[in-house]
């Protein structure tokens, strides 16, 4: 009788010990996540909502992340600041917004004449890029997980036709970060204008051109009503990678299971965002052309001038910063290999398919 009582008590004690362990593996955690993007864009802002929903679904609601659109909690270009000082546990943003703080962060997002989304992911995951990026964000008491990509962005909207590089001189163009420096080298006058203010500036003539994202987002913002010429291809942004910036102290407090949940949710959000752009850009472009938008291709001489200017900007930064030079060297070497592979295989195949489509095959 006493032996049975002992075994019963021992079993109850084991259950009591096990319960706190399970609770520790799945505690209730509540984070706030400001975004650099407005609610009006169901693409990039939608990626923040998608991410939060995936985290909640994979933790039975125990790990809750509340997203805030641009300006609701912190200014859109101060998301990394909020993460760094612990105002928020994480933030949904893009590294190239913080060019003034750390120029090499542009490589986390993408630079002109750079990598496609697939190539960028390959550089980060298997080309040594993530280790370099981690080192950059460590200087801000943060880490960053890729969580989306816009794909190739259009060259932008212009009030007048661009036939030669000289047509860019004196042009007042809204464009961000390192790209603005490329335009500046070409004689344009870059303007830093918040997304919500772009349309009024174009409408009033304060801007001559704007570079934003692509057909689906640009259609929503109404640029076709005030600028007739729409340029591609997106050599200036073959992709723009978003990230989830996380305060390192907050990350360290997360159970390992939640850390893995965050990584998985970011990967899922990344796949969804790029697929959304690829699916929606073509119907949007057809609607824009149907409204009378003049779809134009960059003249080769203009793209050549842009590429030379990009090289100069990158080399200028590398000459001033060993840290920038280190990341640039890794990125350039990887890009060269990817261009070679594309010329041999998938890029060559895509070129063939486009050519045969035009021939009606």
UniProtKB/TrEMBL annotation:
Pfam families: DctP (PF03480). InterPro entries: DctP_fam, SBP_TakP-like, TAT_signal, TRAP_DctP_sf. Keywords: Signal. Residues 1-23 form the signal peptide. This is TRAP transporter substrate-binding protein DctP. It comes from Bordetella petrii. The lineage of its organism: Bacteria, Pseudomonadati, Pseudomonadota, Betaproteobacteria, Burkholderiales. The gene is dctP.
């Amino acid at each position: 009788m006493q032996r049975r009582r002992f075994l019963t008590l021992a079993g109850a004690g084991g259950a009591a010990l096990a319960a706190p362990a399970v609770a520790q593996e799945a505690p209730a955690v509540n984070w706030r996540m400001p975004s650099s993007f407005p609610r009006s864009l169901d693409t990039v802002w939608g990626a923040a909502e998608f991410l939060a929903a995936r985290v909640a679904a994979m933790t039975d609601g125990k790990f809750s992340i509340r997203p805030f659109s641009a300006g609701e909690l912190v200014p859109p270009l101060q998301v990394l600041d909020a993460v760094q000082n612990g105002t928020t546990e994480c933030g949904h943003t893009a590294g190239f917004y913080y060019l003034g703080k750390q120029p090499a962060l542009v490589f986390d997002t993408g630079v002109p004449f750079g990598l496609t989304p697939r190539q960028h992911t390959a550089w980060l995951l298997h080309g040594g890029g993530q280790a370099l990026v981690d080192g950059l964000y460590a200087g801000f008491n943060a880490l960053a997980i890729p969580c989306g990509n816009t794909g190739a962005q259009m060259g932008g909207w212009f009030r007048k036709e661009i036939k030669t590089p000289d047509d860019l001189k004196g042009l007042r163009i809204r464009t961000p970060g390192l790209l603005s420096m490329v335009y500046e080298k070409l004689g344009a006058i870059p303007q830093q204008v918040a997304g919500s203010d772009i349309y009024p500036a174009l409408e009033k003539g304060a801007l001559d051109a704007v570079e934003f994202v692509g057909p689906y987002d640009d259609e929503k913002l109404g640029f076709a009503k005030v600028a007739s010429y729409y340029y591609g291809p997106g050599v200036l942004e073959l992709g723009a990678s978003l990230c989830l910036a996380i305060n390192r102290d907050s990350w360290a407090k997360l159970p390992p299971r939640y850390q893995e949940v965050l990584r998985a949710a970011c990967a899922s959000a990344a796949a969804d965002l790029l697929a959304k752009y690829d699916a929606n850009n073509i119907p949007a472009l057809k609607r824009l052309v149907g409204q009378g938008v003049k779809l134009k291709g960059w003249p080769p001489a203009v793209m050549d001038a842009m590429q030379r200017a990009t090289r100069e900007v990158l080399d200028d930064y590398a000459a001033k910063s060993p840290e920038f030079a280190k990341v640039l060297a890794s990125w350039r070497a990887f890009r060269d290999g990817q261009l070679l592979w594309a010329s041999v295989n998938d890029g060559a195949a895509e070129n063939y398919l486009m050519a045969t489509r035009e021939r009606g095959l």
